[in-house]
Amino acid sequence: MTFDARDRAAADIASARRVLRTEASALEALAEGLGGAFARAIDMLEAAPGRAVVTGMGKSGHVGRKIAATLASTGRPAFYVHPAEASHGDLGMVTPDDTVVALSNSGETPELGDIVAYCKRFEIGLIAITSGAASTLAGAADAALILPPIPEACPMGLAPTTSTTMMLALGDALAVALLERKGFSPADFRVFHPGGQLGKRLLKVSDLMHGGEAMPLASPATPMTEVLLVMSAKSLGCVGVVGDDGRLAGIITDGDLRRHMRPDLLGLGAAEVMTRGAKTVTPNMLAAEALRLMNTMKITSLFVVAEDGRPAGVLHVHDCLRVGVA
């Protein structure tokens, strides 16, 4: 690398660090400034029976689309409406049951005028995200979330950078605070994220386990000759031993067979070979958690038991790997 190239690289890195530090300090200031208006915004989003309608123009509109998507994916029905399109018929998409979240750095974006007036006319809740504390938008809002006066990271102070970062982060804060208040669970999250790697991470043990007739089961008195036949037929590397009460009393694995390898092994009963108190999992456990447990214990399968202790299925490590759970 030439001297000039090194200089250019150093200048580029210095510029990038300045941007990131400027935006990081803006987020710190934003966090410190949160107060009653944020709590009112959460109250409004939770209480409204309709949807969250997010709107904004230009870069604020791009951020608004992401905020709407985040709200929708975390249990709060939401969508984005372009303010200019709203003035030409899309206001019909907004109902009195909804809450509108309007983004404008200045708070004086003219394209927002009609949707703001519509909210006031039909008593639709309005949340503003703006830097303009004394702006028209902030004055009209039921909850005005004011961004701190941090300069844009652009050296000319013109390109939306710091302001849009704060808007985006504030949208995330709204979505996460709302989901925590509502008790939104991983199971709820999976309903909205069935695809991709995230969907795989949210699969439950019950989605992958072998249940019913596929379970390898035996009674405590079952001869080991029959236990071996069940283990071979089911091909899961284990057999669950079920007591007279229907509860899982123990497990026989390949390791148990090796530990009891002696001439009279086939003459023993299942209860004499089984491991009591073996680790089990529940059907509602995430498959990723069960996989981590198998890796930690260096085992290849786990019995799944219901709340009453009865066997509900068997999860094998290959079941997790086959669908990409990691």
Polypeptide structure, described:
The chain is an alpha/beta fold and 326 residues long. The chain folds into 2 domains: 3-184, Glucose-6-phosphate isomerase like protein, domain 1 (Rossmann fold), CATH 3.40.50; 205-322, Roll (CBS-domain), CATH 3.10.580.10. It has helices at residues 3-33, 36-47, 59-73, 83-86, 113-121, 136-140, 162-182, 186-192, 196-201, 205-208, 224-234, 254-259, 270-273, 287-297, 317-322; strands at residues 52-56, 78-80, 99-103, 125-130, 143-146, 217-218, 238-242, 248-253, 275-276, 280-281, 301-305, 311-316. The strands form 3 sheets. The chain has a 5-stranded parallel β-sheet, sandwiched between helices. Strands 6-7-8-9 form a 4-stranded mixed β-sheet. Strand 7 (238-242) and strand 8 form a beta hairpin. The protein is elongated. The two termini are 41 Å apart.
